[in-house]
Amino acid sequence: MSESLTAPRLTLRQLPLAARLTLALFLISTGIGYISALVQLHFQHASPGSPLPTPDDAVRIFHGPLGKPVSQLERLLTADEHEKFNGTGSMAAAFTRKSADWKKAVKKRPEAEVQEERDGERKAVLEWIAAGACKADYENDAFALPDKLRDQKITSDYVTDGDSGARQVKIKKILDDRCVRCHCSKDPEDASAGKYPLDTYETLRPRALVEAGAGAMSLTKLAQTTHVHLLGFSMLYGLSGLILAFSSYPALLRVILCPLPLLAQVADISFWWLARLPEPIGPEIARLIAVSGGVVAVSLLLHLVLSLFDLFSAKGKLVLVLLFGGVIAGAATVHRNAYISDFLSQEAKGVETESK
């Protein structure tokens, strides 16, 4: 592929030293920032024990659980409580280790006994949802338990006897104590959870209904994430691509590689939305998200590394080689001491790794 010969082409090496240093630090900062984004991606969406989201995680996040659709509340309360404690993982732990009074309760009584009662609370909520999430049961704070939960142990504060002698639970009080303390519109304990209030029947009911795409990332959040990526990351990939476009590498390489992360990002975000299609098409498209995301990451890495080495002469390249060597040596040390693998192993087993 040829370029115009009517005028000499400006290359990175011809820029003043101050400009080249600024571009170099921009590229390095971008690399560090992208690694931070991958770390956030692990904590937000990856399955416990997995460094990054897998194709199955992508199906869970963007398409939703396979098989019979369920409501968002049912999905969150039936998922393994050691999954990520957020709206795409599990909220079962809100009844146990994430509840306000858990530590106090297990100090007074055996943990297994408390666990069984809290599991009863969760099952009662699930039965209320399965029965249609009746407004009268919620407003009267009295839901008659089905026969299959007749012998289920439930925290005594939430159990009453109905007029007919049937066993009832205070369904609103359970939801208030386990969910609404964070998911409320005023003064929530968790500001991010407060964006999704459950403190009224009107805000609770939509999340108890089975809808198309139930269990996947909400359309509101998907639209917000799309907006952030298309504006914020497009500017980042555009700048890194423009820097590489002024490098001294062959024109064919630059024409292919410079716009590649932008194209891959558009494909990636398209897959997010297409993943909501019915089975079997939706899940298969969702699995492609791991591929398109990988293309974005690799092409950005090439932008950064190739541009950095093209900015400087032999001495500058030597400094970069030493810098990358130090990074590789540090990564090897971390790998050798198994810090990351131990963390992932503990996470996979559901062991709390944060400081207490």
Summary keywords:
elongated; 3 strands; single chain; 356 residues; mainly alpha; three-stranded antiparallel sheet; 58% helix
Plain-language structure description:
This protein has 356 residues and is an all-alpha fold. It has 2 domains: 12-59 and 216-312, no CATH class; 70-208, no CATH class. Helix content is 58%, strand content 2%. It contains 14 helices and 3 strands. A 3-stranded antiparallel beta sheet has the order 1-3-2, with helices on one face. β2 (159-161) and β3 (167-169) form a beta hairpin. It is elongated and about 90 Å long.
Count of discrete domains: 2
Structural class: mainly alpha
Please tally the helical runs, counting DSSP H or I stretches of 4 or more residues: 14
Shape: elongated
Strands of the largest sheet, in order across it?
Answer: 1-3-2
Blueprint (SSEs and pairs):
Layout: H1 17-45, H2 55-63, H3 72-78, H4 102-108, H5 111-130, H6 135-139, E1 143-144, E2 159-161, E3 167-169, H7 171-180, H8 201-208, H9 219-245, H10 251-257, H11 260-274, H12 281-311, H13 314-336, H14 339-348
Antiparallel strand pairs: 1-3, 2-3
Helix pairs in contact: 1-12, 2-12, 9-11, 9-12, 11-12
In short, what is this structure?
This protein has 356 residues and is mainly alpha-helical.
